């Protein structure tokens, strides 16, 4: 099976809707980006505008999930009105429970059991108005047991046989272990999983070797959180409140924003098939798009690996980001 998810010649940048489909998210400055207009109709219009801008720039991979508020419904409405051709990925395993509030005690509830999969697959079909091209276990980890659940795996194998690219997204400091376990699965002599969406960025590159192994085995690799939920942007909260000095220096020398440098670093990984932008505004998207036009070697990437944190330290900091 080919690892490609995109049409030939398409930009390898995609748009993730985690910050667009609900009024609260953990990206730095998310509340500032959305402003006061957070009612459903306003956010639908804003999401349509972002999808229009992304499509006009040539992007053709859009990523949603059941837990991203109304992201699937917004994307489905846009697909019906505008363009059916983009590649669409979605995820199951979390349920959105915040009730359109940013101050909710709990925003999403995780459950990787068969009943959740059986409920959320038709919900996704209804929201999107069509079958997603890619369907992932949302934030699979070894401790949820989802990779040992024969009933879940059998259902995912049915979807794979029906033409859906099935896989998993990963999270936490043990992403590599989870992925390597996923690569060994067998259902009736085949592995139903063939796509992984993982966090990789200049602060947390530890999954890189496992992602390279997956890509070499024919899996498709989608990179999420390449700007570390805003920590690798001009809003970064690293150190004393600034982006890492090496990143800021490279960005200034190139006349671009730090996020473009961070995205370029992900795009330069030979195993990365798609890298997601999590932009909330057109300006952020325009800044992110600059990553597609950096000359090879232009980021002086040898200066950047020293930014990496210990995985446990990185994920602890991420877990403390506020919902805004």
TrEMBL record:
Q: Can you give the residue ranges of the NADP-dependent oxidoreductase domain?
A: 44-294
Superkingdom, taxonomy of origin: Bacteria
Classification via CDD domains: AKR_unchar (cd19098)
Quick one: signal sequence residues?
none
What is the protein name stated in its UniProt record? Oxidoreductase
Originating species? Deinococcus malanensis
